[in-house]
Amino acid sequence: YTGQRLKKSHKVFHVLGTIDKLSATMGMAVASMRNACVDRYYSNYIIEIQKYLISIGSCIGTMESDMKRKKNFTMINYDGEKKLEELEKRIDELTHSLPKLKTFIIPKKEISCRVHLCRVVTRECERELIDLADIAHKENFNLEKKYFNRLSDYFFELARKMEKLEEQRNNRKNIYCLCVFLLFVSIISSIFLNIK
């Protein structure tokens, strides 16, 4: 940041506030995943994205025209292209692990609902950033816009994955309950047979 003073109603604060909301929403998704003992491979990556959002926010909050007026100002360096490539790989990985989508999705399980909420807020970030790009003096935030666009796709596929994992966990729980019930019936039956 350059220290330039702006009105609280400035469009840049709409974007930064939405990014902040996205990070908080992602934190809720991480908490749900960890409470359900979901493989940390997924939650750890979300935390990495949260850290990256801080760098994106710094970039968005600094106008190019302001940087030119600051002789000793150094822009934070983050490898956006590399982050985007990694995101694309994660999307492909999830897509290949899931069946082809044939119907509309209605979120109904806790973790997948939280991840879908991340997707919705990510789309909100993208829209706010597009609006800001119309009045900003940099290269239209092309990389950042593309990242948010693909991030929403990532959350879509991740939500499908979480839905599948939750269904599998519920099925295992149902099988366990059935086994316990059958064991109980077997014990009761043997007790009655011994009484006779």
Notable characteristics:
196 residues, mainly alpha, 75% helix
Can you put this structure into words, describing what you see?
With 196 residues, the protein is mostly helical. Helices cover 75% and strands 0% of the residues. The chain contains six helices and no strands. The chain has helices at residues 11-35, 40-60, 64-69, 80-96, 110-133, 142-195. The protein is elongated, with a radius of gyration of 24 Å.
- The best one-word shape is elongated
User: What percentage of the residues does DSSP assign to strands (E)?
Assistant: under 5%
Percent range for helical residues? Answer: over 70%
Tally the helices: what do you get?
A: 6
- Radius of gyration, whole Å: 24 Å
Spans of at least 5 consecutive residues with low confidence: 67-75
- Helix-strand string: HHHHHH
Query: What distance lies between the first and last C-alpha atoms, to the nearest angstrom?
Result: 85 Å
Average pLDDT level:
82
Class based on secondary structure composition and strand pairing = mainly alpha
| Major sheet details | none
Q: Give a count of the beta strands, DSSP E runs of length 2 or more.
A: 0
